[in-house]
Write a structure and sequence with these properties.
four-stranded antiparallel beta sheet; five-stranded parallel beta sheet; single chain; about 170 residues; alpha/beta; 5 helices
């Protein structure tokens, strides 16, 4: 199964170099958008809902952290790619999976991609990609942005219908 990614960097050379490195060393990743600014990155994430987001820290008009703040909760795993090491701690506070320094080494890129995809697969198994509706014993519907916790086994009247990004599933919470 292929995975999608966007690259957001204000430097054209950096975007193209990372794209070529990904094509050569991570063929399971398809680049769906190359973005030169924060606002472009936001639109690309909203449009494509990529599995991976390669994000530069310093960009004009809106830096990488402002992009993530604006987006809020996203499906994709974030890998910061930057020339500045002083933002690493802040990046991990934004739940970045990795923080790569330019010029990116192919071995580090491959490790970051594998770690990100594994983390994304685990997260997808733990939650629905979009929204859930829970029906209580009296038929009342409760909308939630994530699946509610599984109810106790003697409370089988609760069930949750989840629609994930790629597949529709219904499960009974026990």
């Amino acid at each position: 199964m292929g995975h999608t990614a966007i690259i957001a960097d204000d430097e054209k050379h950096s975007r193209e170099t990372l794209r070529m490195e990904l094509e050569q060393h991570c063929p399971e990743v398809s680049i769906v958008a190359l973005c030169s600014s924060g606002p472009e990155a936001i639109e690309a994430v909203k449009q494509h809902a990529p599995d991976l987001i390669f994000l530069d820290v310093q960009m004009p008009r809106m830096d990488g952290f402002q992009v993530l703040e604006k987006l809020g909760d996203i499906k994709g795993q974030v890998i910061f790619v930057t020339a500045f090491d002083q933002y690493a701690i802040r990046a991990f506070r934004f739940s970045a999976v990795d923080y790569l320094l330019k010029p990116v080494q192919p071995s580090e890129l491959k490790q970051a991609v594998q770690r990100s995809l594994l983390r994304g697969d685990i997260a997808a198994k733990r939650r629905c990609a979009c929204s859930c509706t829970t029906w209580g014993p009296k038929g009342q519907g409760i909308r939630a942005s994530r699946c509610p916790p599984v109810m106790a086994s003697n409370s089988s009247a609760w069930r949750t219908s989840c629609v994930a990004k790629r597949t529709a599933t219904t499960r009974t919470c026990m």
